[in-house]
Amino acid sequence: MLLLKNCYYVATFDENGTELRNVDIFIEGNRIKRIGKGFDIEGNLTVQTIDCSNLVILPGLVNTHHHFFQVLTRNYPPVQNAKLFDWLVNLYKVWKNIDEEAIYYSSLIVMAELLKTGCTLTSDNHYLYPQGIEEIFDIQIEAAKKLGIRTALTRGSMTMGESEGGLPPDVICQDTDTVIKDSQRVIEKFHNKDELAMTKVVLGPCSPFNVAESTMTESEKLARHYGVKLHTHLAETKDEEKFCLENYGMRPLEYMEKLNWVGEDVFFAHGIWFNDDEMKFLAETKTGVSHCPSSNMRLGSGIARVKEMLEMGIPVSLAVDGSSSNDSSDMLGEVRNCMLLQRIKYGHDAITARDALKIATKGGAEMLGFNKLGVLKEGYGADLIGVNIKQFQYAGSLSDPLAALVFTGYNHNVELNIVNGRIVVSKGKVVGIDEEELTERVNEISISLIEKANA
Ligand SMILES: [Zn+2]
To answer: Ligand 1 centroid vs 182 CA: distance in angstroms?
Structure first.
């Protein structure tokens, strides 16, 4: 049992947008038991009390799209100024040599970075399967368990290599049968339907330009049979639109409709280049969008129409995207970029700090299939974060402690992160790992991968 005592400010994101000052939060097991004042639990030796008098407490942030392995090629000079297709072709040359160790340590450091910047639930889209490495999903789950982060990872895939007219080299692609067999294996082994599951599985064939049509249709059948969600990259660039028109004779979203890849259980990463009719279609079908503002800016891909999506009732969540196109996993920083980028497109009042935080909390939790997360409420899951507002970088911002987290600050580290009722970041440090040792390990793996590619 945990008692968060004297919370300076609490933003619940409940249906009334309740925000409270100087309250306590009592956590029993993996759920929030009570939020209020003066609980009669003093003296109970099984309760761990945490002083939260400097903390702004809010629901944990949810990241709905990532590629953990890309942390090994952050800031890689040959692609620093490249657009998506050139960026991919150059990076495939380095990525094709990743092995089990690279997958484990990249997953570990990225999820630790996510925890440090306020994320409690993350997805990932690992689509790279170099020959001979099969159980990649299992390696990622092992890393997640070490940290205690909640996950809804996708079993990603690429099945259309260069020889089939796709973008990636054949050596990192699989065939549809192999993908479907492993997808079924990971669903049966890891997918938990519980509302507070620590692990859910999503099926995530990578994109229209590197996945065969059979993989898309077989994944769709399998996902709907098991009741798991579907995810892919869509409408990210004009090049992708051109590829779909040339290869399938239709626009990206039309292609998805033809494949039956629309509905409440489908969400697309990016969703920048939808036209007006397509926006209406997304709203009618409740098909979701994972918005990745930093990556979209970094690759010059464009600006998603998030303000309009919200007004039209299209489900929107937030994501940092892969570590080679962000190039960080700064979740709270992503909330800031989300708010700012919409203002470039739509003007000064496009979306508020609270709008952006709501996308990043409730929006993400719902998209990944967790209806008892993303809100601080009695009976809901105990996934929450605390940011120390009484520090240098937030000085002068206390007139609105919640919006301060989006408008102010230059490092987005949280002081406290609790997932499923368990403390995973304490006093700003990730519990259970040696951050310096892990950094060194990841640097070694990264340098060796890049050397191999250039040999
Ligand atoms: Zn991506």
So the answer is: 21
* pLDDT confidence of residue 42: 66
Residue 293 Cα to ligand 1 middle (Å): 12
Tokens 């979701």 correspond to: 288
The DSSP code sequence of 205-259 is E--TTTS-HHHHHHHHHHHHHHT-EEEEEES--HHHHHHHHHHHSS-HHHHHHHT
Contact between 364 and 63 under an 8 Å Cβ cutoff? The reply is yes
**Contact by Cβ (8 Å): 172, 130:** yes
pLDDT < 70 positions in the chain: 42-43
The candidate with the shortest Cα–Cα distance to 92, out of 322, 250, 415, 361, is 322
Q: Which fold has domain 2-59+372-429?
A: Urease, subunit C; domain 1 (2.30.40)
Exposure class string for 247-268: b at 16+ Cβ within 10 A, else e:
eeeebbbebbbebebbeebbbb
Distance 246 CA to ligand 1 centre (A): 22
Domain residue extents for the chain: 2-59+372-429
| The predicted structure's pLDDT at residue 24 | 97
pLDDT value of residue 434: 97
Q: What's the pLDDT score for residue 121? A: 98
